[in-house]
Amino acid sequence: MPATHTRRRRFLALTASALLAGLALPTATASPAAATTTAYDDTYYADAIGKTGTALKDSLHTIISDQTKISYSAVWNALKVTDQDPNNSSNVKLLYSGISRSKSLNGGNTGNWNREHVWAQSHGDFGTSAGPGTDLHHLRPEDVQANSIRGNKDFDNGGSSFTNSGGSLTDSNSFEPRDAVKGDVARMILYMAVRYEGDDSWPDLEPNDAVTNGSVPYMGRLSVLKAWNDEDPPDSFEERRNEIIYDSYQGNRNPFIDHPEWVESIW
Fold first, then answer.
1. Cα–Cα dist 117/174, whole Å
2. Structure confidence by residue, pLDDT tens digits, 10-57
3. Neighbours of 72 (CB within 10 A)
4. PROSITE patterns recorded for this chain (predicted)?
């Protein structure tokens, strides 16, 4: 008899004996996400590698704060590049709706797409001034009506569908993006919390576990955002977007796209 068959028979016999004896067998546990390695670890992230918690957050803040700021009007053309539909170069891919829409249909009317602040402007009172109001790492194209429905709601699970939702849901005090971009949303929110720490004339943006933040500089729900980061890891669209912003516009990166495991390390 082959050795593999012998080992299998011994395993089954031991298992049966343990069950008959009333012994508890060890249960399978999920392994923690392995740390990722990127081409930027020895250069861009050199001062952050090996750190955890507050030390990691502080180091990343220093790194990503070295940033070129663009104007709000320049965001229009930037989004046509960063969010170009990989299957149609004439279109952009809308964040919450998942719709592919002509780049030329940017504006404020029904059927247009506009500039969605994923970290809502009112959650920090930063408006559209150069800085958090124009940071491409959290600005995405979205259907005008869907953008209005999201408003300044915090993020959480649950709700009902709506026109052009693409699978996104909303209720009275929260918004749930479609499954394919849940992780994108989480990583954008947490990028903002690290980038803007209250030391450059802007409010100290922080995540919390509430969905009633209103106009204070907080965004929730942190526990849900962390789960979304795990459930929806960075894909090629998100990674390409990060590269374009770094290479062509702002000169800084979203570290949670490069190292999604850093979310758990900090929060």
1. 15
2. 433 434 433 334 433 333 333 345 588 999 999 999 999 999 999 999
3. 14
4. TAT
